[in-house]
Structure formats: structure tokens, C-alpha cells
Write a structure and sequence with these properties.
Length: about 350
């Protein structure tokens, strides 16, 4: 028996049969903002917000995912909408387990007796305690085996980078809770860094800015919408404006204001500067041979944050390197993790012990 008490089988024991074509294996991107599940032979089967709505009186789960997100900021007193993931790691163990259980069942069309092998992407600077929490949650959600892989590495695979070649690839994965930056060569991570500055912190920055400047109180969902519609990291060619509804803090009544992209850019400036700084540090720490590769191949952006308008342009201006955005940035991590389901040799090389 192994230490975690679930009788975990020794890893990689029977390699060939391990990932059989007909198995129920799943790859999961357990994100702060969204959870995506990829099933063997089916592709992405779940893509929902990492939110769970719980009845405080009965402790029953009222809703998970999309339905729970609809409830954020709108629930009666006895129902709370909880985000069990914070900064890319588990903040609320019990609710993460329930959420995972729900998503695994959903991926398998509510079959109860399924015990899938699961591969999960985690931030690169995750602690041993946080790693154990992810593994235990997956085992309690009825997984038969659990493998952890670094998000930046699988994001690079999902973005189609040639990570097994002897050349430097740099990937910047901006998620909901963390931004993971990695320089990868020969299927190994040469440098990796995870900063707890990403989409959620940007939403918060927008909320604080509007509160400070206009005495306007808005919710998380509105802040996220503003970021998506008019947020930018570099001046836009064509100015954008947006009408925002919220509550006036002084008078306590609903109020509508119009803001433009330059104001939201100002609100996001500190968050973007933190990410820029982390990219600069990564470039400084990269061995010279690989730096030469990166100056040819450039930097690849993945994750939801990659979609912020002109972020690629800002990075290009400040680093002088070519910058591209992955084809499907929101799904890069889960697509890369999904690749591991059929490439066991690669999984063995990159899984974290």
C-alpha cells in the first residue's frame, strides 16, 4: 500500500495496457476560472466554470459549472457560489472534490462505476502539499490513477510546439489564477516560473478602478465582461467604449456610466506590467543557445489572458521578439494534457513525481 491510503498502484507498471484505446481515461485542466475535461477518443467533453453553488443550510450542492456561474452575485442568503480553486491550486478541498466528481461523471455520461486514469495540469511552482491536495481530490472522485503535469509544458504541447526537439520554445500561459512561463527543450523544462497574476486579478483591478474613479460598484461577471470587450495591453487602433451598469456607492442607487478602452488599460496596467516583468526575467535566465532559438521562434501565448487585445503587440514592442497566439488558447492546456493519454512515453518523461 502506498502512503495516500488509496492503494495506489506502482506507476508505469504495465505500460502497454495502461492507456488502452477503450479505456475511460481523462485529461483535466483544473483551472481557477474554468475546468476542461478531455476524454480518450472523444476530445473535449466538459468546458465549464470552476464554480459550485452550495446550500448553506442543507450542505447540498445546488449547481456546478455554468449553472452555478449564473448564480454568482444573485443567490439568496442560504445559497453560496464558491470558487474552490484559487491561484491555480485547491483552496477548498471538500468542494473541489465534489466539483471534480461532477465533471468526471458528466464526462462519462453519468456512469457511476467508472474509475478513470486521470492526468491533471498544475502550475509549475505548486508545493508538495498543494500537489497532494490535487491528487487526493482526484482519488476521492474515484480516479484509479493520477498523474500530474506542468501546465506550461502541456500548454506548449497543446499549442503545437515541437517540444521534443533540441531547440528552445517559450510559452506564456495566462490562466485565471496564475501565469505560467516556461522555456522548453528536448521535452524538458529549462526554466519555469509561475506568477499569481492572471485573469481573476485583472477582473479585480477593473472592479477597484471603477470603485475608486466613479464610486461605482460592479460584480465579478461584469468586470470580466469589461476586460474581454474593451480591455487592452497596448493602445488600440480604434478606440472602444462600453456602457457599464452598477451601483453608486454614495447614493446606493443603480447607475450607468460609459468608459473607454484607455481607462480600462490604465486599470489593467499593473497586472500587465507584472506579467511583462516575469517574461523579462525568464528571458534573462535562459541559456544563450536557447535564447537564439527563442529569438527565431518567438514566444507563444496560451490561456484566456492571451486574448486580451494587443497583449501580443505589447510583448513584441518590449522584447523585440516575434509573438504568436495559440490557435485555441483557452483549450491549449487540456489539449496538451489530452495528448498524454495516447503518448505514454511522453507522459513518463514529463509527469511530476
Amino acid at each position: 500500500m502506498s502512503q495516500n491510503g488509496y492503494g495506489r498502484p506502482s506507476r508505469f507498471r504495465n505500460m502497454r495496457s495502461l492507456f488502452s484505446l477503450f479505456s475511460n481515461d481523462l485529461a483535466i485542466d483544473l483551472g481557477t476560472a474554468n475546468t476542461l475535461v478531455y476524454a480518450s477518443g472523444k476530445g473535449i467533453v466538459v468546458n465549464e466554470p470552476s464554480i459550485i453553488a452550495v446550500n448553506k443550510i442543507t450542505n447540498e450542492v445546488e449547481a456546478v459549472g455554468k449553472e452555478a456561474k449564473e448564480m454568482v452575485g444573485r443567490t439568496p442568503g442560504n445559497i453560496v457560489a464558491i470558487r474552490p480553486m484559487k491561484d491555480g491550486v485547491i483552496a477548498d478541498f471538500r468542494h473541489t472534490e465534489k466539483m471534480l466528481n461532477y465533471f468526471i461523471q458528466k464526462a462519462h455520461n453519468r456512469k457511476v462505476l467508472v474509475h478513470p486514469r486521470i492526468i491533471i495540469g498544475v502550475p509549475s511552482e505548486i508545493t508538495q502539499v498543494e500537489k497532494r491536495a490535487v491528487e487526493d481530490s482526484a482519488y476521492r472522485a474515484k480516479a484509479s490513477e493520477v498523474y500530474l503535469v506542468e501546465q506550461a509544458m502541456v500548454a506548449a504541447i497543446g499549442a503545437g510546439l515541437p517540444i521534443t526537439e533540441p531547440g528552445g520554445n517559450m510559452v506564456v500561459d495566462i490562466g485565471g489564477g496564475t501565469t505560467d512561463i516556461a522555456v522548453i527543450s528536448l521535452a524538458g523544462i529549462v526554466y519555469s516560473r509561475s506568477v499569481r497574476m492572471a485573469g481573476n486579478q485583472m477582473d479585480e483591478a477593473v472592479m477597484n478602478f471603477l470603485k475608486r474613479k466613479y464610486n461605482l460598484l460592479i460584480g465579478e461577471r461584469t468586470a470580466e465582461q469589461i476586460k474581454i470587450e474593451i480591455g487592452s495591453a497596448f493602445p488600440l487602433d480604434k478606440p472602444l467604449t462600453m456602457e457599464i451598469k452598477g451601483r453608486n456607492l454614495i447614493e446606493g442607487v443603480p447607475k450607468t456610466i460609459t468608459v473607454d478602452d484607455s481607462e480600462i488599460r490604465e486599470a489593467l496596467s499593473e497586472s500587465i506590467a507584472t506579467i511583462m516583468n516575469a517574461i523579462r526575467v525568464a528571458l534573462e535566465r535562459t541559456p544563450p543557445e536557447l535564447s537564439a532559438d527563442i529569438s527565431d521562434r518567438g514566444i507563444v501565448l496560451t490561456g484566456g489572458g492571451a486574448l486580451i487585445k494587443n497583449l501580443d503587440r505589447r510583448i513584441r514592442e518590449e522584447t523585440g521578439l516575434p509573438v504568436s497566439i495559440a490557435d485555441d488558447p483557452l483549450a491549449s492546456v487540456v489539449l496538451g494534457t489530452g495528448r498524454m493519454l495516447s503518448d505514454f512515453g511522453l507522459l513518463r518523461k514529463i509527469s511530476i513525481d
